[in-house]
Design brief:
By secondary structure, the protein is α/β, with parallel strands linked by helices. It has a single domain, classed as Glutaredoxin. The protein contains six helices and eight strands, in the order H-E-H-E-E-E-H-E-H-E-H-E-E-H. The protein has helices spanning 2-23, 52-56, 102-114, 154-164, 176-180, 211-237; strands spanning 33-35, 69-72, 78-81, 89-94, 139-145, 170-172, 188-193, 199-205.
Length: 238
């Protein structure tokens, strides 16, 4: 009876999680400064200030300086990101409509800069498995835009991300960060940000196509430039 009950629970969990991941995508965050969960964060309450028309309007690629932000991940840990920083950053922002398109963008980039163990399979894990990224020349940050997520789903969203995503996922409940970054809804948004905060590239789409090569090229150039500048400061400091 115990085994039968367990199977029923697992079956029900699979159904619920299947629905959940249809309405809520997962974007991993492989790095970030972490503080205690009591630190102030972006307001987690749902408001009615969302402008549907703004989401439907075409949005050009974001340009200028990237704003700093802080959000909780699925483990209620606050991640702070500010500029200038010590290395380039790659920021992924996506909503629930591109769940099935994330891996095509994220995995090649994560594998290139963090190693094959950074890949996300999207498979359910009975036990939580937290992935700690290795030291790298670039930081990878994932943000889930959840403004159109019904309030009733919030506890399940956190639970699902703990069992489906190994890497940290920052939860942007009101899309405050997404809107600040000129997020294009219904598409995977990828930002390459220089250490000084300049947005070097904002690519967005469902299928990465040729965009993936462009993202990697910009990241590699930024890493090389950052390393050269770091080498110059060593003799000056000595």
């Amino acid at each position: 009876m115990y085994d039968h009950g367990n199977r029923n629970i697992q079956r029900m969990a699979s159904i619920v999680l299947g629905i959940l991941f249809t309405v809520a995508g997962t974007v991993p965050c492989a790095a970030g400064e972490q503080t205690d969960s009591a630190a102030p964060i972006a307001d987690d309450k749902k408001t009615h200030s969302h402008v549907t028309e703004a989401k439907k309007a075409p949005v050009p690629a974001f340009e200028g300086l990237a704003p700093g932000f802080q959000l909780q991940n699925q483990y209620n840990i606050v991640h702070r990101h500010a500029f200038p920083s010590d290395r380039p950053r790659i920021v992924f922002i996506a909503d629930r409509h591109v769940t099935n398109h994330l891996a095509a963008w994220y995995n090649p980039i994560a594998e290139r800069y963090l190693g094959p163990e950074a890949r996300e399979s999207g498979a359910y894990r009975k036990k939580e498995e937290r992935y700690e990224p290795p030291e790298s020349h670039v930081r990878i940050i994932g943000v889930a835009a959840l403004d159109d997520m019904p309030v009733i789903w919030k506890p399940l969203v956190r639970w699902a991300r703990r069992h489906y995503a190994r890497s940290s996922v920052l939860l942007d409940w009101r899309d405050d960060v997404a809107r600040a970054y000129g997020f294009v809804p219904g598409k995977v948004n990828v930002y390459v940000i220089a250490p000084d905060g300049e947005v070097l590239l904002h690519a967005h789409g469902r299928d990465p196509k040729d965009e993936l090569d462009r993202v990697i090229s910009v990241v590699d150039t930024s890493i090389a430039k950052n390393q050269q500048e770091a080498e110059k400061t060593i003799p000056e400091a000595s």
